[in-house]
Automatic annotation (TrEMBL):
Catalytic activity line of the entry: GTP + H2O = GDP + phosphate + H(+)
Cross-referenced SUPFAM superfamilies: Hypothetical protein YjiA, C-terminal domain, P-loop containing nucleoside triphosphate hydrolases
Keyword RNA-binding: no
Alphabetically ordered keywords of this record: Chaperone, Hydrolase, Nucleotide-binding
Pfam families assigned to the protein according to its UniProt record, in alphabetical order: cobW, CobW_C
Key word Hydrolase present: yes
Signal peptide (residue range): none
Protein name per UniProt: GTP-binding protein
InterPro entries on file: CobW-likC_sf, CobW-like_C, CobW/HypB/UreG_nucleotide-bd, P-loop_NTPase, Zinc-reg_GTPase_activator
UniProt family annotation: Belongs to the SIMIBI class G3E GTPase family. ZNG1 subfamily.
CobW C-terminal domain span: 220-307
């Protein structure tokens, strides 16, 4: 069953550190195969990562990653190609510079997903803010599913900007140096790949040996919540729609009364559900939240508040599934 491939948009002002972030993801991919879409190869220092051949419109990088150039007109077609199962990518990252405004880019992506890029999924709008020049009043911050507060090494105290960004942004704010965002925050690392072949130093490993000075990934949080009672569809949908504090994405399996379990995935307030495979059986909820500044106790009590009312009237009808089913993704991919 082909997975949908998340497409993450990276936006931010000139010099904020978008290319540095994209570079970090590529260099620290750790087995996650990434397709990068830029409109200028030079910007991401591609020379350092070229494995073979000259930069054409699609260039293979270390560890199965790809780098592509396009303009806004070619984006949907390129996303369809990059997210097709034959490309074997786990994540696609689009650097906004010069392609389109972030709001327009989100619309282009959603149109592409609804149209020809049927194996793509919305992976979130990541906005890079520079700790020196950054401004929490910036419009784009209010659109961000994740704010990366970059260049914190260049200020004495990033706390005031961090606090105002946290107040302004709907999603979490992650302070970093040199765009050091862990790819695992953006996508689940694939389990399918075997151990590296022995006796051969891969290009990826060689690259990493060159990274002595590069900062490790910024710390991010994950919180797992497991409950044995089914959840009320309307309450759970309202919880997800509100965008729980600090959560960038969430995933898990949830059972609602009178129905088989559903797989639930969110990025920001973009919600996707689909019936769980038959092999998955839960009595209630198994959820993992990923983000920054997560409140574990708060998430647990929020999920408790989604539980169906105890001692239901035996003749009462089950709560409607509609609040959840409206987020059901089409089965045109999973039925293949
Ligand atoms: N000190 C410091 N410098 C950084 C950091 N992140 C990026 N830089 C530097 O800041 C400059 C701009 O970074 P880029 O990644 O090119 O920024 P960008 O947002 O891609 O820029 P444009 O593509 O021009 O919009 C580069 O010289 C980077 O080396 C950081 O965390 N700390």
């Amino acid at each position: 069953m082909p997975r949908r491939v998340p497409v993450v948009l990276v936006a931010g002002h000139l010099g904020a550190g978008k290319s540095t972030l994209v570079n970090h993801l590529l260099r620290r991919a750790d087995g996650v195969r990434i397709g990068v879409v830029v409109n200028d190869f030079g910007a991401i220092g591609i020379d350092a990562m070229l494995v073979a051949g000259q930069a054409s419109s699609v260039t293979s990088l270390a560890d199965g990653c790809l780098c592509c150039t396009t303009d806004a007109n070619g984006l949907a077609r390129l996303l369809a190609e990059l997210t097709a199962p034959s490309a074997r990518l786990d994540l696609v990252v689009v650097e906004a510079s010069g392609l389109a405004e972030p709001r327009e880019l989100v619309r282009l992506l959603l149109d592409a997903i609804a149209g020809e890029a049927q194996h793509a999924a919305y992976g979130g709008l990541v906005v890079v803010v520079d700790a020196v020049e950054g401004d929490a009043a910036d419009d784009v911050v209010r659109l961000a599913d994740l704010v990366v507060l970059n260049q914190v090494d260049r200020v004495d105290d990033p706390a005031p900007l961090l606090v105002s960004l946290r107040a302004a942004a709907p999603g979490p704010v992650l302070p970093v140096v040199r765009g050091a965002v862990d790819p695992a925050l953006l996508v689940d690392p694939p389990a399918r790949r075997g151990p590296p072949r022995s006796g051969q130093l891969s290009f990826d490993v060689l690259l990493r040996e060159d990274l002595g000075e590069e900062h490790a990934h910024a710390a991010w949080d994950s919180v797992a919540v497991a409950r044995d009672a089914p959840l009320d569809p309307a309450r759970f949908a309202a919880f997800l729609e509100a965008g729980p504090v600090g959560v960038f994405r969430a995933k898990g399996v949830v059972r609602f009364p009178g129905a088989a379990p559903f797989v639930v995935q969110t990025v920001g307030t973009a919600i996707r559900v689909r019936p769980a495979p038959r092999s998955v059986d839960v009595a209630g909820a198994r959820l993992v939240f990923l983000g920054a500044g997560l409140d574990a106790a708060g998430l647990e009590s929020a999920i408790d508040a989604c539980a169906v009312d105890p001692d239901p009237d035996p003749i009462r009808r089950e709560p409607s599934l509609l609040p959840i089913l409206r987020y059901e993704e089409s089965d045109r991919v999973d039925a293949v």
